[in-house]
Design goal:
8 helices, five-stranded mixed beta sheet, 22% strand, alpha/beta
Length: 309
């Protein structure tokens, strides 16, 4: 009997390790420049396997500790991020910056706060966290499962700002800017002036098609994107996709937003109605992942926005 129990426990542990390893493989550590790293999650939706970490995260290692950009989509997702960070450094995480309102930007806050980190975000993002918490929780529980979300607790930011926030840690300067609603109402971008690195959160999507939802505003989003481009970053870490260049960000995000707004404005002026929105030809952007599932919804949302404008 004892041998059977031991064998059962061994198999159970092996399954747990295999499941954890599968989760780890969904996240890819990529160096951006000296002491600046990205953690790239999958380009698909939240799943049990990725624990809600279907986004790109980042961290900066300084002499006095680590600054993390976005905390993951669950308690388990936060722990997965931390495990990868420990492959680079054992220094403490001093600050977590929530770049926006989506759950994978802030659902891991409580874990990192329990380790002593201070959480920073824009006033608009904190309000969005509070407003959409119930909806985001239900969605996460559905997509990653009750076990995946188990142990996750809401933790709102300790430090908020209206438009700009700047601080220095270990000689590294951090500048955070909020310039208006983009994918979510409180999206901010993080600028490292010394290395010319930009973390954009959900302001920039590369490799996959961006999503324009009820919480988005395409007109303001394009304005915010142009603010990002105005810094002329040497290295750009998007909210979705691998570290890249400004040119790639313009191609996959800026050009798509401009295309949708200009094309749909002409469509409306020519008498096109919402029921004909599928006539909008978006095949120029067919190379982006999730094109088929998002193109129609995006076009309809922009159509509705422009009608009200």
């Amino acid at each position: 009997m004892l041998k059977k129990v031991s064998l059962f426990m061994m198999l159970f542990c092996l399954l747990q390790v295999s499941a954890w390893a599968a989760t780890e493989q969904k996240l890819s550590l990529k160096k951006v420049t000296k002491n600046v790293w990205s953690i790239v999650g999958p380009l698909n939706n939240r799943t049990k396997e990725n624990l809600g970490n279907n986004a790109t995260f980042g961290f900066v290692v300084t002499n006095e500790g680590v600054v993390l950009i976005d905390s993951g989509g669950s308690l388990k997702g936060a722990k997965a991020l931390h495990k990868i960070i420990k492959n680079v450094t054992n220094k403490p995480i001093r600050y977590v910056i929530n770049s926006g309102g989506q759950d994978h930007r802030w659902f891991g806050n409580d874990y990192f706060a329990s380790l002593g980190a201070k959480i920073i975000t824009s006033e608009a993002a904190k309000k969005d966290h509070q407003t959409r918490l119930s909806m985001q929780w239900t969605m996460s529980e559905t997509l990653i499962g009750a076990d995946g979300i188990k142990g996750t607790k809401e933790k709102f930011a300790d430090i908020t700002f209206k438009n700009n926030y700047k601080f220095t840690l270990g000689g590294v300067k951090f500048e955070i800017y909020f310039r208006g609603q983009a994918h979510t109402p409180g999206d901010s971008f993080i600028w490292l002036p010394q290395s010319k690195v930009m973390f954009t959160g959900d302001i920039v999507y590369t490799e996959r098609m961006l999503g324009i939802g009820e919480q988005s505003n395409s007109k303001s989003w394009l304005h915010v994107f142009n603010s990002v481009a105005g810094f002329k970053p040497k290295h750009l870490v998007p909210g979705h996709g691998s570290p890249t260049t400004l040119d790639k960000a313009i191609k996959d995000t800026g050009n798509y937003l401009s295309f949708l707004r200009n094309t749909i404005l002409l469509f409306i002026e020519s008498g096109g109605g919402a029921h004909d929105i599928s006539r909008i030809n978006q095949t120029r952007f067919k190379y982006l992942k999730n094109y088929e599932s998002l193109k129609g919804r995006n076009a309809l949302k922009v159509y509705t926005e422009i009608e009200w404008e």
